[in-house]
Amino acid sequence: MRVSIIVPVFCGQDTVEKCIVSIRNQKFQEFELIILDDGSKDNSIDSVMHSLKDSSLSYALIVHKKNQGIAKTLNEELNSQKEITF
After folding, report:
1. pTM for the whole thing?
2. Is the pLDDT of residue 77 over 60?
3. Residue 75 and residue 10: Cα distance in Å, rounded?
4. Quick check: helix, strand or coil at residue 44?
5. Structural contact between residues 3 and 31, judged by C-beta atoms closer than 8 angstroms
6. pLDDT digits (tens, 9 = 90+) for 32-75
7. Euclidean distance between CA atoms 36 and 70, whole angstroms
8. What is the C-alpha separation between 33 and 61, in angstroms, rounded?
9. Can you list the positions of beta strands (E) in 1-86?
10. Is the pLDDT score of 84 beyond 50?
């Protein structure tokens, strides 16, 4: 079973790296990582890329130029998923 982990980010340069490192350290590795940057004005994307450097994780980075709010951002991503397997 493959699991999707969705990490919403908005101006989280100080915390997103800890989050990704924690995810990378999980024993269960059958997942894809989807990172949604919702128009951050700080160095969040740089922190994400630094955290994923030399990683073998399957991931996608989606970047919004304008902040849409967490609800709209998450709903947009959830609605874009074409297949859900249980």
Report:
1. 0.82
2. yes
3. 16
4. helix
5. yes
6. 899 999 999 999 999 999 999 988 888 999 999 999 998 988 88
7. 10
8. 8
9. 3-9, 31-38, 58-64
10. no
Q: Using the structure block, give the residue that is written with the tokens 């790296």.
A: 17
The closest alpha carbon to 32, from 50, 7, 63, belongs to 7
The type of residue at 39 is G
Q: Please state, as a whole number, how many other Cβ atoms lie within 10 Å of the Cβ of residue 10.
A: 19
Find out whether 19 and 44 touch, Cβ atoms under 8 Å.
Answer: no
Q: Residue ranges per domain, the chain?
A: 3-80
Listed in sequence order, the residues at least 6 apart from 20 whose beta carbon sits closer than 8 Å to its beta carbon are 7, 33, 35, 48, 51, 52
